[in-house]
Amino acid sequence: MNSQLIFRNIERFILLMLLQVLIFNNVYLGGYINPCIYVLFIAMLPTQTGRIPMMLIAFFTGLCVDVSTNMLGFHTFASTAVGYLRGVWLDKIIIRDNEEGIETPSIYSGSYQQFLFYLFLLLFVFNLIYHTLLVFSFHEFFSILFTALLSTIVTWLLALLYQTLLLRKMRRKEL
Predict the structure, then answer these.
(1) What does R_g of the chain's alpha carbons equal in angstroms?
(2) What are phi and psi of 3, to 5 degrees?
(3) Between helices 112-135 and 74-89, what is the axis angle to 10°?
(4) Are the CB atoms for 140 and 132 separated by under 8 Å?
(5) What is the pLDDT of residues 58-87, one digit of tens each?
(6) Which of 22, 138, 140, 148 has CB atoms 3.0–4.6 Å from 127's, for a disulfide?
(7) Tens digit of pLDDT for each residue in 133-175?
């Protein structure tokens, strides 16, 4: 991995963490929908990141959010699960149909539709795990499912906004 790619990922981590901690942790749409934009950092890590480093990075990312929100490991557990599933789904959804290789998954690398599907799956699994741990009751199954789905849609739309606005500016600088 080259130093420019490492710097870009550190920059992305700091930006998404600041957005999450300073803005999105204080936003509850409808009283219960909380966007977790920082999961985009895990989804966009370089494709050559191994499974163990991926899970450690995801663990650390979730831990940073948990520490800033005084949670008890909910973000850490959900992020680590997403870090594990990311490698599997990245291979099955994005990389299998792409011959030229992708350095960093985004809407600008590979197929736009494949990335959107991949990101939606990761966000949905994250939100399902997170909200299940938060409520911790199977009696509220449909409520958890509904909240996870709405949180996923809101986070997915914010992630697309992030990608289209910020990544487009970064691509112009590189050209």
Answers:
(1) 16
(2) -70, -30
(3) 150
(4) no
(5) 999 999 999 998 888 999 999 999 999 998
(6) 148
(7) 998 888 889 999 999 999 999 999 999 999 888 766 555 454 3
User: What are the chain's domains?
Assistant: 3-174 (1.10.1760)
pLDDT band at 99 (very low <50, low <70, confident <90, very high): low
Q: Give the separation between CA 95 and CA 115, rounded to whole angstroms.
A: 10
Q: Which 3 state secondary structure label does DSSP give 35?
A: coil
Q: Output the pLDDT for position 20.
A: 93
- 16 exposure class (CB count in 10 Å sphere: 0-12, 13-18, 19+): buried
CA-nearest of 61, 82, 75, 74 to 17 is 61
Please compute, for residue 154, the number of CA atoms within 13 A of its CA located in the half-sphere on the CB side: 17
Q: Phi and psi at residue 137, in whole multiples of 5°?
A: -150, 125
Q: What CA–CA distance (Å, rounded) separates 151 from 83?
A: 19
